[in-house]
Each structure stands twice: as C-alpha cells, then as structure tokens.
Amino acid sequence: MLFISYIFAKTLLYIAFKRYLSMTLGQNITRLRKQKKLSQNSLGKNVGTSGDIIGRYERDEVKPSIEVASKIADNLEVSLDYLVGKITVEIDNSILKRVLDVQQMNDDDKNHILYTLDALIKSVKLKSIA
Both 62 and 20 in a single domain? Predict the structure, then answer.
C-alpha cells in the first residue's frame, strides 16, 4: 500500500511539474504579477500601458511586443526568457548582475573569484550533507 501511495504522489508531482513547465506567457505574467502583489492596473502603468491590456496579455488574447514584454519582465524582476517560458529556472537579478560584473573582469581576477566561489559552494554542500 505504501508503494502505491509513493507512486501516486510521484505521479501527481510529475503532472504538476509538467503543467508548470507548459505555462503560457499570459499565465506566467499572471502568476508573477500576483507573487509581486501588483494589480493589472499598476503593472500596466509601470510598463506604459493599461490594466485592460495587461488583462488581455494574461488571458493570451494578444501578445505584447518585444519592447513591452521586456518592460514587463523588468518590472516583474525576471528575465525575458523566464517570462516567455524559454527557461524554467528563475535567475535572481542581483546574482545575474554579479555574474555580469565578474564576466567583465580580466582573466586572473575572474579565475580568483571563481576559485573562491567554487570553494564556498563546496563547503556549503558538504555542510548540508553532514
């Protein structure tokens, strides 16, 4: 009986994950907007459009232009790739900014920072195992 419950739980998790991965642009806008506790009107005002238009995007009645989609992603603090469902991992903008800063450094500085970061990550992973 326990094995059947395990398989049932695993199946439900798989279905939920698959549904999460196949969300539309409109569903992503809705979910992220609600997470940020923004109304359609406030998001619309922030990106230079109306709340009614945001509602149409959320219902997938129309698609925003690339410029508007980029403004929506910026306002919701996610990447455009994440907003449109191209990637499934949300990258924190503060981490992304740090990565871009490191990327612009000379090779020696970059290697020192990455070596230190690798050591810190390894240390945290070892702590979580113990």
Answer: yes
